[in-house]
């Protein structure tokens, strides 16, 4: 396990790293998750193994520090990841990012273009979300921070179920709420708008049975490869690891697109 200070107060972002060839591959998890449980198995899959690989945990999540004075905006998350990658000597990385991690990855690529050479988004958030009952960021963001810390987290635990809660319970509750609020609000311009303007190779993997992402035609028109993965839901890498590894390897191939 490695780490780097990423805030003025010295809060540490931590990651698990596998040695290998450059350029590095960097994996970012989603809301209430952790990169090693979600990505370790597929990162060493025969289709993807052999590259220097960093499985990063965002601040407030997993094995990283949990500052309560951090804003947890998508921009702040992206800048913290940028600081960690800089400390690790990473540049021009191939970035594979799931769900909220995909939103962070888009902002990272827009704000720190020297750090990202290719972007593989895994059923990522591209647009603002209306808060409302249910699992995920919208369900959490409908609470005020005080309500969530007092009792809302218990409702969230019961709604998300034991699988997601296994990593969500490792997330600081302040970080979980603030990250959810800022994910639902999105960025200005939106994550989608920033993605469309990026000049690097970009792919968007989605679970085939759930249907294409919103405005898939607009993504394709901007040069984003929109790639279905069969036999899975939102957690593509866990539910169809072979299909996920094959889709990522194809997306990162020099001949992709």
From TrEMBL:
**Is Hydrolase among this UniProt entry's keywords?**
yes
InterPro entries according to UniProt: AB_hydrolase_1, AB_hydrolase_fold, AB_hydrolase_sf
For molecular function, the Gene Ontology terms on record are: hydrolase activity
What Gene3D superfamilies does its record include?
alpha/beta hydrolase
Q: Which organism is it from?
A: Streptacidiphilus alkalitolerans
Task: Give the organism's phylogenetic lineage.
Answer: Bacteria, Bacillati, Actinomycetota, Actinomycetes, Kitasatosporales
Query: What's a Pfam family this protein contains?
Result: Abhydrolase_1
* Origin: domain of life: Bacteria
The alphabetized UniProt keywords are: Hydrolase
Q: Which residues form the AB hydrolase-1 domain?
A: 26-133
Q: What is this protein called?
A: Alpha/beta fold hydrolase
The answer to whether keyword Hydrolase applies is: yes
Q: Which residues form the signal peptide?
A: none
């Amino acid at each position: 396990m490695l780490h780097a200070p990423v805030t003025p107060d010295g809060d540490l972002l931590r990651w698990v790293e596998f040695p290998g060839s450059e350029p590095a591959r960097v994996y970012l998890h989603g809301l209430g998750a952790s990169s090693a449980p979600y990505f370790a198995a597929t990162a060493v899959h025969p289709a993807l193994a052999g590259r220097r690989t960093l499985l990063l945990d965002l601040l407030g999540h997993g094995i990283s520090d949990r500052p309560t004075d951090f804003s947890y905006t998508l921009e702040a998350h992206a800048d913290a990841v940028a600081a960690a990658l800089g400390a690790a000597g990473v540049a021009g990385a191939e970035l594979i990012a799931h769900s909220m991690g995909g939103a962070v990855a888009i902002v990272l690529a827009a704000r720190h273009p020297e750090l990202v050479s290719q972007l593989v988004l895994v059923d990522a958030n591209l647009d603002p979300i209306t808060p409302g009952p249910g699992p995920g960021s919208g369900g959490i963001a409908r609470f005020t921070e005080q309500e969530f810390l007092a009792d809302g987290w218990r409702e969230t635990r019961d709604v998300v179920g034991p699988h997601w809660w296994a990593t969500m319970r490792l997330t600081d509750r302040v970080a979980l709420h603030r990250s959810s609020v800022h994910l639902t609000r999105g960025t200005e311009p939106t994550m989608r708008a920033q993605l469309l303007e990026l000049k690097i190779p970009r792919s968007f993997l989605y679970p085939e049975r759930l249907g294409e992402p919103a405005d898939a035609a607009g993504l394709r028109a901007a040069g984003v490869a929109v790639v279905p993965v069969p036999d899975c839901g939102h957690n593509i890498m866990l539910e169809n690891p072979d299909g996920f590894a094959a889709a990522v390897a194809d997306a990162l191939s020099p001949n992709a697109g």
